[in-house]
Amino acid sequence: MSGELGTAEIHAGQAEAAAVAEGAVPHQRATPDEAPPGAGLDTRTLSRALFLRLAALEPGSPEHAYVRDTLIELNLPLVRYASARFRSRNEPMEDIVQVGTIGLIKAIDRFDPERGVEFPTFAMPTVVGEIKRFFRDTSWSVRVPRRLQELRLALTKAGDELSQRLDRSPTVAELAACLGVSEEDVVEGLAVGNAYTASSLDSSPGEEEGDGPLAERLGYEDLALEGVEYRESLKPLLAKLPPRERRIIMLRFFGNLTQSQIGEEIGISQMHVSRLLTRTLAQLREGLIHEG
């Protein structure tokens, strides 16, 4: 049902629909040359007659199934018209049409011709809703509850409206007041937006994200963590040092000064600095071993 109908097929479908509407259920499709009277009737008129015919037939009977299938095929242009609104999405148009056809079938099964509403008017919201539901359920990288998906959409719409009205980005409290939900719900809805898209592990990094794809930057050992551990262990030991020795350590390892520069800074010889560094480092090393 998802393939494009040619002009000849459309005329043939109209001819067949007219015959079915009159109560004759042919065993095979009529060709354009065999079109019976009434083949020029418009689709709405044919659909109305077919729905009246469908209501008079027993559900589950071959005649009922045939008229129902004829209605589906006759109204496929409605599905294609609705599907065209979503042509910019990444999904193949054939899949979108198939999903829209499911909505069309649901609309046909629920339609009551006695209500005085034209079938396209009744069916369009169902068809579009089915397509939107398809995108809502399949476009998320991580499956999240429907409630949060709908909350995210509402937050996006409310955020746009408030931004235009306030001429700035709305706060969490303002979004919560606009939607009548708690601030916790707003925070949860904003956070769930991270699940909508996911980056490939093979994607190239941005200008500020470092070198190599993401897969090569995950799970590596951060050598700086070892330095953090050492510094935290040394803090109490450094605090116990005399002020001069502590200053020499700070200038040497945190100020990156040479022994000669430290000597000039403190006012002692480079040799004296060397002896003090050696003695102090031995003291700190012993303290770390004892602590361990």
UniProtKB/TrEMBL annotation:
SUPFAM superfamilies registered for this protein in UniProt: Sigma2 domain of RNA polymerase sigma factors (SSF88946), Sigma3 and sigma4 domains of RNA polymerase sigma factors (SSF88659)
GO molecular function: DNA binding; sigma factor activity
Gene3D superfamilies assigned: 1.20.120.1810, Winged helix-like DNA-binding domain superfamily/Winged helix DNA-binding domain
Family matches, as PANTHER family: RNA POLYMERASE SIGMA-E FACTOR (PTHR30385:SF4), SIGMA FACTOR F FLAGELLAR (PTHR30385)
Record bears the keyword Nucleotidyltransferase: no
Region (Disordered): 16-40
Species in which this protein is naturally found: Streptomyces rubellomurinus (strain ATCC 31215)
Record keywords: DNA-binding, Sigma factor, Transcription, Transcription regulation
GO biological process: DNA-templated transcription initiation
Any Pfam family the entry gives: Sigma70_r3
Listed InterPro entries: RNA_pol_sigma-70_dom, RNA_pol_sigma-B/F/G, RNA_pol_sigma70, RNA_pol_sigma70_r2, RNA_pol_sigma70_r3, RNA_pol_sigma70_r4, RNA_pol_sigma_r2, RNA_pol_sigma_r3/r4-like
Biased composition annotated in UniProt, kind: Low complexity: 16-25
Domain named RNA polymerase sigma-70: residues: 95-108
Taxonomic path: Bacteria, Bacillati, Actinomycetota, Actinomycetes, Kitasatosporales
Name recorded for this polypeptide: RNA polymerase sigma factor
Keyword Magnesium (UniProt): no
